[in-house]
Design goal:
Blueprint lengths: L8 H20 L1 H11 L3 H6 L3 H6 L4 H21 L1 H4 L2 H8 L5 H33 L8 H26 L25 H11 L9 H20 L7 H36 L5 H10 L2 H17 L7 H19 L5 H19 L5
Amino acid sequence: MRLPHSLSPYLALRLRLAHHALLQFAASLTSSMEIFFFLAGPVLLGLLSVIALPGFLAVSLPWPAALGLLGAQVLLTCLPAWLLRKRLLPANTAAWLRQLPLPPRLRWQADIAVAGLLMLPLGVAYAVSASIWLAQSPPWLRPVAAPGIAATIAVWLLTWLLTTLIVAQRLRAPRPAQAARPSTMTAYVPQRHRWRSIFLWRRLFWLPFWRNENVIGIQQSVLLATAGASMLAWLLRAPLVPAPLLGLLASASLIIVTDRGDKAVREQIAVLRPVLNAWPLASGNLIRLACTASLLPPFAVLLAGAVLLYAIDPAALQQRVTTVYAITASAALLAIVGLPRLTARGRVALVVFSILALSAIGSELWN
């Protein structure tokens, strides 16, 4: 990424930091993107065309509904910037930049430029999506084409503004810490924990995923919520969305939340292994507990889906296709967690094959 020589050093530094953070984020999602393009490649153009649809629909709705629709679109498109804010400016870099004697105008210019770098792919997606709709030109679009384009541009500009505020918030001085309570010195008596493995799992695998600029906890929560919501919509036969598409989304979310959780646990084990080897304890139980815990969220979604299916149609729970789906899903989840020595390509193949197999089986559920 070459920058113009007329840029100030601070502005050039901020843009290079943002560009480096985006490259790191793209590299971390390489395997997920391979899965996505393999599954959704044929319909990628159709998915891209949906991005500009809210702007065209909003101008034909009453203003409260239009504002709600456009506001929801702005918040959703700002979500990636909020999730990437810690990558754009790590804590140590942000603390160093706060100490520079720079005028507020230059700081705002840098925040706007970084937000613009993030908004550039979104602007291209909006342009492609709007071009697709204008090229097709359905009858309902012709009266609202010009206002819809204006609404889409307004949404993009408002997203840019909110993204700028998100980036600027990262450079604000942290709140002063509360005064610490005076400590009472007492003699420490080492005690043997009754549930030592669970205690160590919470300290070494659960809490680190939520602390120290780590977004794995939030990432897994979003994936788990997506898996639960898609499973709920699929079993309730949500209107306006084809059942096979909902089945594909439910199956893919179930597999991906398992794959991402297991990958996070394996990376944490690699980080902790030198420390665990130095401790005078057998770490095998702790490692097995951490790997098993990554299976709890997807199996909870499966169990919740079985309970919901029984409440909707008890006879459907006794069908052979339901049993096959449950067995196949359980085997796929166990294989993802239980085969850690697979290569990266082999893991992608396992994930893709599991999603396709579950989608094919699940498509027969409502037939």
